[in-house]
Amino acid sequence: MERELSEHTDRDRYREQTRPRAQAVPDPTAAEAGGGGAQAQFLRLLLRDAPAVEYERPLVRARAAGGGAEELADLEEAKVLALRVRTVLSDRRRRESELSALFETANDLAGMRDLDQVLRAIVDRARNLLGTDTAYLTLRDTAVEDGDTVMRVTSGSVSARFQQLRLGPSEGLGGLVAETALPYVTANYFADSRFEHTDTIDAGVLDEGLVAILGVPLQLNGRVIGVLFAANRRERPFSHAEVALLGSLATHASIAIDSANLLEKTRAALEELNEVNQRLTDHSRAVERAADAHDRLTDLVLRGGGIEEVEAAVSAVLGGAVTVYDASRHAERLAPELAQAAGASRSSGRAVRSGSGWVAAAVAGGEPLGAVVLEGVDLGAADQRILERAAMVIALLLVMRRSASEAENRVRGDLLDAVLDAPGRDPDTLRRRAERLGADLDAEHAVVVAEAPGAHPGRLRSAAMHLAETSGGLAGARAGTTVLVLPGPRPAEAGRRAAGALAAAVNTAVTAGVSGPTSGLADYAARFSEARRCLRTLVALGRSGEVAAPEDLGFFGVLLGGDRDVAGFVDSVLGPLLDYDRRRETALVETLRAYFAHGGSMSRAKDALHVHVNTVAQRLERVGRLIGPDWHEPGRALEIQLALRLHALLRGGLAEAEEAERGGP
């Protein structure tokens, strides 16, 4: 009993020393020494929560007053009982205070949402409740599987080294608590051998100046998630009640940490859900835009819309400026970097970024038809698909346009053949067919016959058809030449314009003969024959790459114009000589041409022919016997020289033109 009383007395002294001093009050000992029995005196002491030392006074006064043994025994028994009651009441008050503090802590922790805020509140409250110099908390490192705990938050710490400690299993007091899931207390850390000391941990504790340490586990669902510590910088025994108090705080802390973690996970899940929802919303909008673009493009195709309308529709959906480049629409303006991007798009089948824009190739059956260029806006994946779909629609329109153009070109070619071969068979039908193609056969037209040796036939034909389509004329191919019938009263001007357009398309020189203007359906065949003879004359004269009408050829034009029979004229003048040369393989015509070319000098003619002068004389004598001795007379000589020039033209291609004219295409 005395030992228990001594414990109570020491504890009361400690509490009295640490309790804030109240204002001075009158000494109640006089009143307590008054009337009433021994029990009443001790009850008065309990009532005013007197210090334990004052419970000796009634016994001291009784001894001083000479009280008997029985009275002293009663007072001693009453004193012991009163001290016991005082201890119970003090423990209850302390417990009530601790419970109140724990409830307050739980309420504060329940209102916190941030994990760092919760941890800070835990260590601050632990330090205040136990009245220690420091408090700190370590948590399991979830990034590793070795069970280490790391310092997470401190209160009252002054050492940076201590604040960065990591405790392995069984290392230091904290490692032992984390491994065993039991509370441990040491009054002198460096003198305690129950746990493993390490240089790193000891250096941190020494740097912080800690001596007495209490650590309790933070447990959640049977698993230790960390350790809560309270520590002093001097030796201090921690009572069982303090261990229990810190343990209760650790329990609340574990629940608060779990709640904060759950809230953090919930917050992260909500953020992820919001992000997913935003992505779904964006995707839904992209799908709606794609569906809208698909509907617009489909409607355009079904309505027979053109490329310009597709450009406008794609620009309205995606924003920015849309331009379609193809063979017939400013393809030459496609910049090198755009051309490179279009090639990459053809290879990948996807839209390709180029500078500040995007390029999607229009391809059909592996054939590049053009490119769709979008500038001034950035595209997401869904919008890129819209641009690629627009490129597919452009390719479809280009194929359809090309097919329609090819069909129309065939119609124009067939109509041209009918106009040149049989204009009188059904003139009304020819006029109606021409009207459907935008041509008026009764109006004045120029007939152009052109050729460009070595040029790509397809490009030459396409260029001629495009020229006829845009000008309201006809185009076709006959006997290896390109034939154009173009409206207008000035044939020479029309011929030069046509030859220039064809030359630009095939990148080579074009030779063209022109005739006209026509004066009705029946006149087209004659103008065609005349234009073809002009073409052959230009070739025979070595004037390839030029354009000429009959009036541009001088007297050759007079002879070649209309229905002149050039071959018949040549045969009537030089026929016997030509026949003799063919049968005997001689060179009478050639000798006669050299003779006239050198001013009637046999000596100069023999140099050109590389024969003896006597050979020239013998040949000219034979010429006189075949066509008459007057062949060198001025009038007859002029006729022979003209026939020789025309014969040279016939050998240069005019004969084939004449034969084709008589035999058809």
TrEMBL record:
Record keywords: Coiled coil
Which superkingdom heads the taxonomic lineage of this protein's source?
Bacteria
Which residue ranges are recorded for the region named Disordered? Answer: 1-36
What residue ranges carry the coiled-coil annotation?
259-293
Q: Which Pfam families match?
A: GAF, GGDEF_2, HTH_30
Carries keyword Lipid metabolism? no
Task: Provide ranges: composition bias, Basic and acidic residues.
Answer: 1-19
Which intervals hold domain GAF? 114-267
What protein family is recorded? Belongs to the CdaR family.
Q: What is this protein called?
A: Helix-turn-helix domain-containing protein
From which organism does this entry originate? Answer: Streptomonospora halophila
